[in-house]
Design goal:
8-stranded mixed sheet; Rossmann fold; binds cytidine-5'-triphosphate; elongated; single chain; 32% helix; 6-stranded parallel sheet; 2 domains; 400 residues; alpha/beta
């Protein structure tokens, strides 16, 4: 299936450097990006770096627009699902609103019949100027979509106000929003529910029971599933990670909250339960900080078992996700324990990780075995994102 295509027009403003991040993140989300740079943009970001990121799909040279018409560059926009202008400078906005076409960027915009999203970025005085205001109003009337600009510090010293270009993630959310219903990829139309991270089980208001899970593996799977076009809900315990682009993130603290969030997020087509859920919580959470009583005797914590979320999703959820994948963190007898765990939990696939290996729990790499009806595959130790990509690849094949 073909990816959706963005034609990105980079204008000549200081925010042009952010276009590099925009290209990279757009590709991460599964978009194909073709770029047109204005001559001024090349003063701020090198065509070579843009071309490298855009895999050569860069049109930067300026020429006679009629000649362009002949070579077909003007058809660039017709091959795109959306045209995005970032940064949209005051100059480009003026050209767009007046229908000028004296360079490739403006000629492409004039010849375009696709949705247009612009991310203005300019000096606040330019943004506020009556001429720009008139152009803005005209563009809105012409059906152009805007994202930003934002308020706050500008690149120029001592300048504040509205004019800063929206961040790449915001621009991408706006693109997703405009193209959302058309979004495709091998997992498009599938809801993937993922749990990640540890849970924290409070002892009293200042202490809790936790584990070393970093959430990295689950977050990497969420990003990979989203890049494959899935609609992703990520239920996460407390971690130090930012939400992956385009993923619905629900943050929780305890196992019971995680189960509640999972129940709320169901139904799903695919459930990948990656979280290191604490097996036990204290039977009674103290509402005040537990103090030493001077006797030298530590308090005895009474523990209660937490709900088993994987067991619930595998055996009780109605409707059951078509594919339920569990994880197993083992320190010994990996295959034996993990195989038994898969039976016990009732999941379809089980990803077993050997957490006794250095760099696995909390680290950036993972060494896993994938246990399924058709057998056990040992995957070589790899980066957690590579493990995530491979797992998503297996899921795609499963649904083909
Ligand atoms: N899991 C869960 N809810 C729990 C405990 C575990 O959903 N309360 C899920 C994990 O997300 C993982 C799988 O079950 O997908 C296995 O987790 P693991 O901690 O390895 O197993 P345990 O259930 O704790 O079993 P054991 O104590 O035998 O290791």
């Amino acid at each position: 299936m073909k990816n959706q295509r963005i034609l990105l027009i980079i204008g000549g403003g200081i925010a042009a450097y952010k276009a590099l991040e925009l290209i990279r993140r757009a590709q991460d989300r599964g978009y194909e990006v073709t770029v047109v740079m204005t001559k001024a943009a090349a003063q701020f970001v090198t065509p070579l770096s843009v071309s490298t990121l855009a895999k050569g799909k860069l049109y930067a040279n300026l020429f006679d627009p009629h000649e362009e018409m002949d070579v077909g560059h003007i058809r660039l926009s017709r091959q795109a699902d959306i045209v995005v202008v970032a940064p949209a400078t005051a100059d480009l906005m003026a050209k767009m609103s007046h229908g000028l076409a004296d360079d490739l960027a403006s000629a492409t915009l004039l010849a375009n019949d696709r949705p247009v999203l612009i991310a203005p970025g300019m000096n606040p005085k330019m943004w506020d100027h009556p001429a720009t205001r008139r152009n803005r109003a005209q563009l809105v009337e012409d059906g152009v979509h805007f994202i930003g600009p934002m308020s706050g510090e500008m690149a120029e010293a001592n300048e504040a106000g509205t004019g800063r270009m929206a961040e790449p993630a915001m621009i991408l959310d706006a693109i997703d929003g405009l193209l959302g219903p058309l979004r495709h990829g091998p997992l498009s139309g599938k809801h993937v529910l993922i749990t990640a991270g540890p849970t924290h089980e409070p002892i009293d208001p200042v202490r809790y029971i936790a584990n070393r899970s970093s959430g990295k593996q689950g977050y990497a799977i969420a990003a990979a599933a989203h890049a494959a076009g899935a609609d992703v809900t990520l239920v996460s315990g407390p971690v130090q990670l930012g939400a992956p682009d385009g993923v619905r993130l629900v943050t929780v603290e305890t196992a019971r909250q995680m189960k509640h969030a999972v129940v709320e997020a169901l139904p799903a087509d695919i459930a990948i339960l990656c979280a290191a859920v604490a097996d036990w919580r204290t039977t009674q959470e103290a509402d005040k900080k537990q103090k030493k009583d001077g006797s030298g005797k530590p308090p005895i914590l009474e523990l209660t078992e937490n709900p088993d979320i994987l067991l619930y999703v595998s055996r009780e959820a109605e409707p059951r996700p078509e594919l339920v994948i569990g994880f197993a963190a083992e320190t010994d007898h990996l295959i034996e324990h993990a195989t038994a765990k898969r039976q016990r939990k009732g999941c379809d696939w089980l990803v077993a990780n050997d957490v006794s290996q250095e760099g696995v729990m909390g680290g950036d790499t993972n060494a896993v075995h994938l246990i399924r009806d058709q057998g056990i595959d040992a995957w070589p130790k790899a980066d957690k994102q590579a493990v995530a990509d491979r797992l998503v690849e297996e899921i795609i094949q499963h649904f083909q």
